[in-house]
Amino acid sequence: MSKRKYIGRHKTEAETILNKAIGKKIKEARLNYIILDKKKTCSQTKLANALNPPKTFQQIQKYEKGKNGVSTIILIQISNFFGKPLEYFTSDATELLGQAKSTSNSSEVAPELNPELN
Question: Between the chain's N and C termini, which has fewer beta carbons within 10 Å?
C-alpha cells in the first residue's frame, strides 16, 4: 500500500493579505491589553487559553504572522476577549483588499464583466 501524497492548499494573494492584516491587529490588541493586577501585556499563551476550545501559543503566533487564517468563530472570541468590535480587526484588511483589486490588471477580467472593455 502506497502513501498518498499531501497536496497543500495554496492561498490566493487576497487571502494572504487578509490573514496578515487581521494577524497584525490581533497582535496589536494583545500587546495593548494590560493585565491590571500584573501590569503586563497579554501573552500568546493567555490568549490561547481564553479561546474555546483552547489553542496553543503556536497557533496564536501563526494567526499573528498571517500564516494561518482565523475562523470567524475564533475571531469573535478574540474580539470578545479584548472587548473590541470585529471592525477593529477587519478594517485594515478591507482597505488592503480594495487596494489590491485596484492595482490588479483589469484585462484579466472576462470581457463581458469588464466595463472598460464595453
Answer: N
- What would the DSSP string read from start to end of 75-101? HHHHHHHHT--HHHHHHHHHHHHHHHH
Question: At 28, phi and psi to the nearest 5?
Answer: -60, -45
| Strands of 4-64, DSSP E | 34-35, 40-41
Burial class (CB in 10 A: 0-12, 13-18, 19+), 3: exposed
Strands of the chain (E only): list them: 34-35, 40-41
Q: Helix, strand or coil for residue 40? A: strand
Q: How many angstroms from the chain centroid is the CA of residue 114? A: 30
Separation between Cα atoms, residue 81 and residue 71, nearest integer Å:
15
Whole-structure pTM value: 0.72
